[in-house]
Amino acid sequence: MTRLLIIGSLEAELGQAARIAASRGARLRQADGVTSGIAMARAEGFDLILCDVMHDVAWIVSALAAERIACPVIACGRNADAAAAVRAIRAGAKEFLPLPPDADLIAAMLQAAVGEPDAPVHRDPAMAAVLKRAEGVARAEASVLITGESGTGKEVLARYIHGHSRRANGPFVALNCAALPEALLESELFGHEKGAFSGAVAARRGKFEQADGGTLLLDEIGEMDPRLQAKILRALQEREIDRLGGAGPVRVDVRILAATNRDLAAEVAAGRFREDLFFRLNVVALRVPALRDRPEDILPIAEHFARRYAEANGLPNRPFAPAARAALLSHPWSGNVRELENTVHRAVLLAEGDEIGAEAVELHVPLPRAPQSAAQPAGPQPSRPVGVAALVGRRMEEVERDLIIETLTHCLGNRTRAAEILGISIRTLRNKLHEYRAAGAPVPVAPGQMPVAPFPYALG
């Protein structure tokens, strides 16, 4: 259920947009102006803010950033007011929603805010077994640890569990533990009181309190700092949390789901993850199989994404040609469902004619491995990269930068997958990319989950 804050009067066309959003399952709150809007965002937390361009869009965007509230803002106004749209985008709004509102655009907007709302698309027995087990544990209150490779759909499974639980009418709140540095992550999780740190101009509820009565997904929990792991353990055991700068504990009623692409048992053995927290989270374990291990799901998922992106981009829904289907089935899909989605999205845009042909299905070819010579002794051999002589004379920092950026390009901008290949943590990768951007180096980004430009006047 999307938590939507609307800033502006609900009369006339903005009220129509609110009614459409409510009919699509959004939980609505309304503020008359940006000052009351930021106060509500601090106190309650939202997935999306819809702000009338008659109000100060730039102020609400900057206020959210100053208070470390990660919530996208979409400006809305009359369709003919292109100048207002441009000003809103330049002020920091994520998109511009023209009024009178279009129901399909609002549906896409809500979907982008909370991620994939549909049940997992599946046909393969391997995935069917996972979903059957998920349904069996959904109505319990036990914590669930969801594992699997990057891009397999762990958050989709978490939403499926929430939707089949007794908490389905409560909020579902997801937080990527690898996306924020430790100091910000602690505030995001537990909230803070006014004056707890520089920039804390008012009290704010964290994700635990926002998820009260519902479900909290801690994604990429294997990347969490051990100090925060201890606080998560206490929250699980005592069902209470401490806000930063708070005078006392706050009771919370939250079911915890955790997801990771790491082997947490190995992380425990290596001393990087708390054993007591691992056992608290691992009451029920669900592993999402890699796409290559459920081949019967490839075409149904591809057809699902083809329909979605054709509709989103105003294109006809076209079937895959036999050659395209064969290409999809033969590919190893190292990036799993995320790679398949990006591939199909691109194919929908590039295809010509009545079918999506093989020429539109641009597949990444994995780097070939050189065959081992019979003269070589058995066992691992030291590798000698091709063209290593060309690296002589270059600084180590330059070589590292080029390797990281090239690997990220290879992974279509997927940081989690790139970190896996490089053998570093996603936090280390993020810090490196920040350094490169500051130095002016081009850094690739992953294609978004939203269509290319679902709203008019989007400036990229």
Count of DSSP strands:
12
Overall pLDDT confidence: 83
Count of structural domains: 4
Write the CATH architecture name of the largest domain. Answer: 3-Layer(aba) Sandwich
Q: Output the CATH class name of the largest domain.
A: Alpha Beta
Number of helices: 18
Question: What general form does the structure show?
Answer: globular
Euclidean distance between termini CA atoms: 27 Å
How are strands sequenced across the largest beta sheet?
A: 2-1-3-4-5
User: Unreliable stretches, pLDDT < 50, 5 or more residues?
Assistant: 367-387, 447-460
Gyration radius, rounded: 23 Å
CATH superfamily of the largest domain: P-loop containing nucleotide triphosphate hydrolases
Order of helices and strands: EHEHEHEHEHHEHEHHEHEEEHHEHHHHHH
The secondary-structure class comes to alpha/beta
Q: Beta-strand level of the residues, as a percent range?
A: 5-15%
**What is the CATH topology descriptor of the largest domain?**
Rossmann fold
User: Main β-sheet: number of strands, strand sense, barrel status?
Assistant: 5 strands, parallel
Describe the structure using short key phrases.
460 residues; Rossmann fold; 4 domains; 5-stranded parallel sheet; disordered C terminus
